[in-house]
Specification:
This protein has 294 residues and is of the alpha/beta class. The chain has helices at residues 44-52, 73-76, 94-102, 111-117, 133-143, 163-178, 190-196, 214-220, 260-268, 281-289; strands spanning 4-15, 18-29, 33-37, 59-64, 67-68, 79-82, 151-155, 182-187, 199-204, 207-212, 225-230, 244-248, 251-256, 274-277. The strands form three sheets. Strands 6-7-8-3-9-10 form a six-stranded mixed sheet, sandwiched between helices. A hairpin with a 2-residue loop joins strand 1 (4-15) and strand 2 (18-29). It is globular.
Length: 294
């Protein structure tokens, strides 16, 4: 088993009326990608900000490479961070921004390699203020790697990006994983967590409600085939006759070991607009919480 590079035990962070982080424990191993998966407001960002040293926990312990984490510059040399919201010096060019961030650290990498990996060549002389949203996000993630960190935090790195740019960033994350980097990713994109993660921590209302590899989570959920159908089609039917049914938003999600009887019932009521599929992480979350991630 790989070396544990980061562990957090029983982290808590409370605000008036809100338990933002409520007893969270997380472990990260060398060369591993873990995802903290959950809806907005689940406590994902507060958790990673505590791990990064940007917030102090009310309770709990954090260890980097078996040493207690104090948020000192020594520890911060080991990590790279892409925040959920990034602020740049808008008048600087892309190249000037890369050089400035690189100069903040003792350890540096070849910026030419960073520029190539993140496909920034054509924008090096462009001022940051003139970049598109996707280009700014690529730059933000690139800056998390300029000090050749051992551990990288990526907080919602692909939110709002078009599918092409999102998948390009997925390839970059896989590249750095192959180089032995350890990465903590927060996301509410189910496919992203499934595609990239060795292990997933599902978080809701400040707590980790389940964790494991994507396939372990799906297998242990007891879900089999899932039939997805608009709930309006079932308005004249009794959901109980289908067994395990969860309604969220406009859809009903019916889980069955054998989907054939479910399909026969739907067809008997002249319902033909449905989807039969294998369960996903989203179905796991739906079963655990009774709601979908928006």
């Amino acid at each position: 088993m790989s070396e544990v590079v980061l562990s957090a035990k029983n982290l808590r962070k409370y605000y008036p009326g809100v338990k933002a982080v409520d007893g969270v424990s997380i472990e990260l191993r060398k060369g591993e990608v873990i995802s903290i998966l959950g809806p907005n407001g689940a406590g994902k960002t507060t958790t990673v900000e505590i791990l990064e040293g940007l917030r102090k926990p009310d309770e709990g312990e954090i260890f980097y490479f078996d040493k207690p984490f104090h948020g000192t510059k020594e520890f911060k040399e080991l990590i790279g961070v892409c925040l959920q919201e990034n602020f740049f010096f808008e008048e600087l060019t892309v190249l000037e921004t890369l050089r400035m961030y690189s100069a903040l650290y003792k350890k540096r990498v070849d910026l030419g390699e960073i520029i190539q990996i993140f496909e920034l060549n054509e924008k090096l002389k462009s001022r940051v203020k003139n970049l598109s949203g996707g280009q700014k996000q690529r730059l933000a993630v690139a800056l998390a790697f300029v000090n050749d960190p051992e551990i990288v935090f990526l907080d919602e790195p692909t939110v709002g990006l078009d599918p092409h740019i999102r998948r390009h960033l997925w390839d970059i994350i896989r590249h750095y994983k192959q180089k032995g980097k350890s990465i903590i990713l927060t996301t509410h994109y189910m496919e992203e967590a499934h595609q990239l993660s060795d292990r997933v921590y599902i978080m809701d209302h400040g707590k980790i409600i389940e964790h494991g590899s994507p396939q372990e989570l799906i297998t242990s959920s007891g879900l089999h085939s899932v039939v997805e159908v608009k709930k309006e089609y079932l308005k004249d039917m009794n959901y109980e006759e289908f067994g395990n049914t969860i309604v969220s938003g406009e859809y009903a999600y019916i889980s069955a070991v054998d989907a054939v009887p479910v399909l026969e019932k739907l067809l008997e009521h002249n319902i033909r607009d449905f989807v039969v599929r294998q369960p996903t992480l989203e179905d796991v979350f739906l079963k655990l919480t009774g709601r979908k991630i928006d």
